Structures are given as structure tokens and as C-alpha cells.
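Dear support,

Our group has been running a series of protein-ligand predictions, and this particular one with pyridoxal-5'-phosphate is the one our PI (initials K.S.) wants archived with full inputs and outputs. We had some confusion internally about which version of the output was final, so please treat the block below as the authoritative record. The input we submitted was:
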Amino acid sequence: MATINSNYDKLSAGYLFPEIARRTKEFLANNSDAKIMRLGIGDTTEALPNSVIESIKKRVEQLGNTNSYSGYGSSEGEAELRNAIANSYAKLGANIAAEDIFVSDGAKGDSANIQSVFGVDNIVAVQDPAYPVYVDSNVIAGRTGKATDGNYAGLVYMPCTAENNFFPTLPDSKVDIIYLCSPNNPTGAVANKEQLKTFVNYALKNKAVIIFDAAYAAFIKDDNLPKSIYEIEGAKKCAIEINSFSKTAGFTGVRLGWCVVPKDLEVENAEAGKIHGLWTRRQNTFFNGASNIVQSGGLAVFSEQGQKEVSELVNYYMENARLIKECLNAKGLKTYGGENAPYVWLQTSNNLTSWEFFDKLLNECHVVGTPGAGFGPSGEGYFRLSSFGHREDVICAIESINKNLNI
Ligand SMILES: *Cc1c(COP(=O)(O)O)cnc(C)c1O
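Confirmed final output from the archive:
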């Protein structure tokens, strides 16, 4: 008799994006000539860099020829790509060995899958608000109880609000696994070295592990801000880092990322190297490697030309962010993020709930954004606007906000 994994039943319904779609559809039904402008999506819109396209084409040609054809590769990724990624860490002053880098088909999968190497009784702490995958994947794994009012029993929420500059204070109780995301989705906050150091020191002291999501590291333009947790002394003993080509290079549909699991990583009941071995085993069992075609595209990102093109892409989105932020500030709204991150996080006006603000922005301006409450309880009262979009569309949206938003 087969039974289900009943942890799935604990998940609060996938409420955020379906509800946004429902309200947008309802608005359009009543306002059929309105043109909706979307500043809600966390997806890239601009074309892939030319060097990436060329590299992918070349690999496809090779596969079309028996003499240069290749089949299964290493599940950890191609050596050239792992070396190039290791090299990019060296440029940050972080010494990461290529064999500690595991190439994957994206950071979303890694951020959910990595917890399979940890015991089910580990206590998990998340920033609140957070990228929903961290929470939901741990619910499915059975590390939480049921949710009441959006709070899962057994999960430690670390509030990130304007009061603490959107970076959490250390948990009061002892936790084992800590998810940190910087630059942050959704708040756009970027942790400085001192802030990360407090968590690295906590993790070293408590033999906890930090899972650091650096998917937006390429958006950091301020040289004083860390792009990797491994810029912090001691982090190799206590941190796993996840990164992605998705937002940096427009790979959201192409799919490529990586995960660093250092051999130095130590946990309570195992010697250094054990977690690295478990992750190797997990990947070898469940995963046959990222597409070889796509890995060639990823390698091109690290070429001189690739770096230049990626930097232009990032600058394009960051100019969108600047325009959005400038418009909101001119309206008298309080904004955060949008400077070294592609998300602008705003405080709703007149203490509106984030869903009330969603309705207001939709009704008055025909602009769709993302209510903060959808990312966790502490997102209430905040709202996310994304800088991923074509410039013309962003300009239409901000012109409409400028003209029509009634504060
Ligand atoms: C977009 C995003 C990712 C990237 O996921 P991929 O699977 O690599 O596309 C990872 N983490 C966060 C917080 C994100 O917003």
C-alpha cells in the first residue's frame, strides 16, 4: 500500500503568485482596455550575451560530429568550468578549490537539495522575509510542524525589517542550519562583512552550517561589500555557498548554477570532509550533471568578453532599479535596496497591508508588483518591485506611478 509524504500537506497553499494572477485577471475583467505593466517578476528579459551564444553554438556543432561528440560528463561539472569558477573566487581573495565546486542546473534545486545531507532533526533558521524555497523544501523534508498564520512550528524566523536594516540579529536559541541570502531577494539588502562575520562566528561556535545564497552577487557594485561568504575568515569551515548564472547572465531558461561544499566544512557528528563526501554521493546518485552545451555557455561568461557583456547586462537592470527607486522616492515612499541588488523594497504608504498596496497600485496605476507578506510574516507592510524588464516597459510603469499613484 503506497502512502504519500504527508509533509506536503503541511505546506500552506502556493498562495502568492496564483493570488497575484487572480487579482490581475479580475481587474482586467472589469477594465478591459487597461494595459497592465508588470514590475513583479523575478525573471530576466534581455538577450543572452553574444559570447555565450557563440560558445553554445560551437558546442552544438561538436556534438553533431562523431569525432568530437561526448556523452555523459562528470556529475560535478566539467573541469574547465569548475576551474573558471574557482578562479573567480580567487579574484575575491577567497581560496576555493575546484573540487569543492559542484556545477548544477540552477540554484533553486541546490538550495532545496543540499539539505538532504543534514539530519531531519536539525533546527533551521531563515531570514524573514525569504525566498520561499528554503522554507518549503524543509517543510517537505519534515523539519517543521504545521503552519499557523504563515508560521511553521519548529522553524526559526529571523525578522529582517527597517529596524535592523534588513539583516537579522543572531537567533536567541541554538540553531543548526541558517539560510542567508545576500544581495537579498526580496528586500534588496546587501550584508556587509561585519554582519556576515557575526553569523560565521556564531556558526563556528555552535557547529552550525550557513547556506549562503549569492545568486545576486554580480549586482554588487560597491567594492566594500562581500560577494561571497568566503571573503569572511573561517567561512570555509561552516558555510556552503550557492550561486547561479540565471540573474547574472540571463540563464533563467538555460539553467546553470553551482554549489560550493568545502572539504573543510565541519559539523557536530562528522569530521571535516564528510559533508563534501555526502554531497558528492548525493549528486552522483540523483544527478547526471548539467547539460554539456549549457556548461560551454557558462564557461564563456568567465571570458574577458563574457565578463564585459555580463557587466553590461547587470548595468542595464541596475539602471532600471535606479529609475524605479527615484520615482518612488519622488512620490514620498520609503524605499530600500535597488542599489547593489535588482529589487526595490518599499514601505507601503499609510500603513496599508502589502495586499492593500498591491490593489492600490493595480487600480490606480495598472502596475503589478509583489506583496511583501508573500515572502514571510515580516514582509507585511512592504512591497517588492523588480528591475528585470525592458527599459520601455519600466519607463511606462514609472510614468504611470508618477502620474496616477495617490499617496
Ligand atoms: C532567482 C533566484 C535563484 C536562482 O535560481 P536558479 O534555479 O538558478 O534559476 C536563487 N536564489 C534566489 C534567492 C533567487 O531569487
